[in-house]
Design goal:
By secondary structure, this protein is of the alpha+beta class. It is built from five helices and five strands; from the N terminus they run H-E-E-E-E-H-H-H-E-H. A five-stranded mixed β-sheet has the order 1-2-3-4-5, sandwiched between helices. Strand 3 and strand 4 (about 65-70) form a beta hairpin. Helix 2 (about 85-95) crosses helix 3 (about 100-105). The longest helix is centred in the middle third of the chain and has 14 residues, at about 85-95. The chain is globular.
């Protein structure tokens, strides 16, 4: 009886994985997410292999920020979003699709807008510093799962809630 209950729990608690809208390469933007009211992620430096930038665009206000993972401001922020933010927006569109990214940022994409950078250029943006630590920490946590050996056994730390909504 316990095996039947375990199998039922596993089916009920499995999280549906949404495939990316389009395939994307992870070299330039290894981490992108729509979370915490922001489009946010980690963007690799084009000049230093050991440097990454944490970039974000806030939903609704369209405030943006880009800094290194240790909170040094991006040198490309000169009154407008930098190339890291454009790369982040482009990869978000590949990952989630233009419609979903636009809805999350609470904006209507204009005619002819196909990329995240084009969407970003159409926003009324302003710079507003935000801490990089939370986003970078989430990125590192995701990286740690790459070191976990493959297994069909669920990872307890990834089983937050049953899909039945019993915890709501």
């Amino acid at each position: 009886m316990a095996d039947v209950d375990d199998a039922r729990w596993a089916r009920r608690s499995a999280v549906r994985v949404v495939p990316p809208a389009q395939p994307r390469k992870l070299v330039k933007v290894p981490f992108v997410e729509l979370a915490d009211g922001r489009l946010q992620g980690v963007v690799s430096s084009g000049s230093d292999i050991e440097r990454v930038y944490v970039s974000s665009i806030t939903s609704g206000t369209h405030a943006y920020h880009c800094s290194t993972n240790n909170n040094r401001p991006c040198g490309g922020l000169r009154g407008a979003p930098c190339k890291h933010l454009e790369a982040l927006a482009d990869e978000a569109v590949l990952q989630y699709g233009l419609g979903r990214v636009a809805r999350y940022l609470r904006v209507e994409p204009g005619d002819g807008v196909e990329t995240g950078a084009e969407l970003l250029r159409g926003l009324d943006t302003r710079h507003e510093p935000s801490p990089a630590a939370v986003v970078f920490s989430r990125f590192l946590r995701h990286l740690s799962y790459l070191e976990v050996p493959g297994s069909a056994t669920p990872l307890p730390e990834l089983h937050w809630f049953a899909s039945t909504g019993a915890g709501r």
